Amino acid sequence: MDNETRFDFSSNIECALKDKQLRRNLRNAMDILVEKRRAVFPDAAELEQLRNAGNAIKRRALKKLPQLLEKLETNCTKNGITVHWAEDTDQANGIVLDILRRHDAKEVVKGKSMVSEEMHLNHFLEEQGIEALETDLGEFIIQLNHETPSHIIVPAIHKNKDEVATIFHEKIPATPYTENVEELTAIARRVLRKRFARAKVGISGVNFAIAETGTLLLVENEGNGRMCTTAPDVHIAVMGLEKVVEKLSDVTPLLRLLTGSATGQTITTYVNMISSPRREGEKDGPKEVHLVILDNGRSSILADPELRQTLLCIRCGTCLNHCPVYVRIGGHAYGHVYPGPIGKILTPQMEGLGRAGVLVSASSLCGACGEVCPVRIPIPDLIRRLRNECIDEDHNGTVAGAGHKRTLAESMVWKGWELANRSPALNRMGTRLAAAMGEHLPKVGPLKQWTRVRNAPVVARCSLHDRVRKEGVKNE
Fold first, then answer.
1. What stretches of 304-372 show up as alpha helix (H) in DSSP?
2. What is the pLDDT of residues 430-450, one digit of tens each?
3. Tell me, what DSSP letter sits at residue 456?
């Protein structure tokens, strides 16, 4: 979705809830992912130790982030990797375009990358006459259908095999209709292999960037990431600046947490560690490697001692799998790149509360996301913080758009509440008025909408003070 596009979150939710096939697809997929995660972490005590370790590693990295980024640049440059810095997505897209034009590339192959989605890179390159082909199977499916990812890890989680079969039959020329999963995979493989062979440039994301060695680490299960980073002559990696970690030894627990939480695996099929372009005597690998490090609001998030915990995220997607809201509406209803619980706290900070603050309302605050987060991000606490910033009375919140939901009427109501609770006489008067109206109180005026989806509070006919006096209890 374009950054300037306004979206109707309520309408999106309503449409998603009416889509019975979408809800069945999501429910089936989520049950499998949740069960696989549970199976791969059978020892609760060991999992908690891993989570503590992951949290400590990421916190240390954020604490030293400026120094680690400089160290990463120094070691990458020493290894022959060209490092570029981008303050926002426009600048990042410009850097990528410049590299492509220098190599006269009219098409690129892409590995899975949420940062490239954040940049809206495919759309940008299309406008410049360059085709970017997604090579991850899930991304390939939704790109054929002109959709965006519905999930951080499983982009096509909202599709079943029948729907995929229809997409392949209609979008890939001379493709027969088949619902056989192996045949569908083979069809995608035939298309992609031709593109790998002729592509001049490959683009990928980065799961972890290791400052100590100047190494870019990518995990995947299909081999397409390895093809994107080795077959073309030029490899461009894009990453958010929070992906850096201090040492190579930090990667071990983080990988265990990432793969176990994301797909229920002990380790992924491929763990790619890229430290340089092709060296003299080597037979494969790119001749050039470029690393684009994107800020796009992350520095502002880092500056807030509480909200910086958002940047601990390792993009495993397990908070989505356990979220009762996401499971019912899917990723597209959120209207932004990052859906689910992590999207609720990340997107409003990046795009401002005025544009995306409505997302923080899509939470039951059940706490499931915080309980399963592998690096212990207190997502429910951060959701509450952002909700407060949306109506911050003094408009002094740290997030852009703080206080945008505050109205004059609401301010007057809260001032009245404050006055009534500071004045015993007004408090007694208000209590008696509420008691006189009884059960009718919450069913009139603005409160009527509030009680439409909540149990109405019952106001006692007699206050505690009055009851004490009637019972003759002495005030000692």
1. 318-321, 326-329, 340-351, 353-356, 368-372
2. 888 877 776 666 666 666 777
3. P
